[in-house]
Amino acid sequence: MSVPGNLRYTAHDEWIAVDGDIVTLGITDFAQDQLGELVHIELPAVGATYAPGAAVCEVESVKAVAEVYTPVGGEIVEVNAALEGDEGQINADAYGAWLVRIKVSDASGLAGLMDAAAYEAKIG
What we know:
This protein is of the alpha+beta class. It has one domain (8-107): CATH 2.40.50.100. The chain is built from 3 helices and 9 strands. It has helices at 29-35, 88-92, 116-123, and strands spanning 8-9, 14-19, 22-27, 38-42, 49-50, 55-61, 65-69, 73-79, 100-106. It has a 6-stranded antiparallel β-sheet with strand order 1-2-3-9-8-5. Strands 4-6-7 form a 3-stranded antiparallel β-sheet. A hairpin with a 3-residue loop joins strand 6 and strand 7. The protein starts with 7 loop residues before the first strand and ends with a helix.
């Protein structure tokens, strides 16, 4: 299971890509593997705002339902609507199938994220 070195990782198995004041959020390959075949995703509305640590969306598999948490506070500026009805994209390419993009207003949670080596050790 590969863990891209250019991303940051949460303890809840989300991946984060930072580009200026925009954060792209998705679930890791490890998370999708643990969940199994994804069958539904509940994405937030564009314009919704969240505090760091809040659940921003929900993914449902044949095994379980899991919340996806944001490490940053901010406003949802884009959702990956292509995933609705085609959730299997996440199973096929967890690091390519991002969930949401957030314009950051509170970046305090970024400091606690893991790099790829730490995340690999966690899931090891």
